Automatic annotation (TrEMBL):
Localization annotation: Membrane
Chief site of localization: membrane
Family from the record: Belongs to the CD225/Dispanin family.
Record flagged with keyword Transmembrane: yes
Membrane spanning stretches: 34-57, 78-99
This protein's name: Uncharacterized protein
The entry's keywords: Membrane, Transmembrane, Transmembrane helix
One Pfam short name: CD225
InterPro entries: CD225/Dispanin, CD225/Dispanin_fam
A single cellular component GO annotation: membrane
Length: 100
């Protein structure tokens, strides 16, 4: 076994280092229960969308991604409020139409 000039006898390989963030110390509210409620009781399509953003908020909280968590949380809350408004409006409409 002959060594060529300029080649080392051993090759050193550096270990791979992964940089991860810790979960947020103060996690952003994910509105998961609110999303489940609006999905089941108010407006199914908006409730499902709110549920998706609630889960995205929860994932961002676990990843430590504050910006994504805040954006997803705001959108989940807005979708939940709209779904609740539609659900209440629909209930009022049904009551008015049955009484009149």
């Amino acid at each position: 076994d002959q060594q060529y000039p300029g080649q080392p006898g051993t090759v050193t390989i550096q270990p791979t280092v992964y940089v991860t963030q810790d979960p947020l110390a103060n996690p952003v509210n994910d509105y998961l229960c609110y999303s489940i409620f609006t999905t089941l009781c108010c407006c199914l399509p908006l409730g499902i969308a709110a549920l998706i953003y609630s889960i995205l908020t929860r994932d961002a909280n676990h990843r430590g991604d504050q910006i994504v968590a805040e954006k997803s949380s705001r959108l989940a809350r807005t979708l939940n409020h709209v779904a609740l408004g539609i659900g209440i409006g629909f209930i009022i409409l049904v009551i008015v139409l049955t009484v009149v």
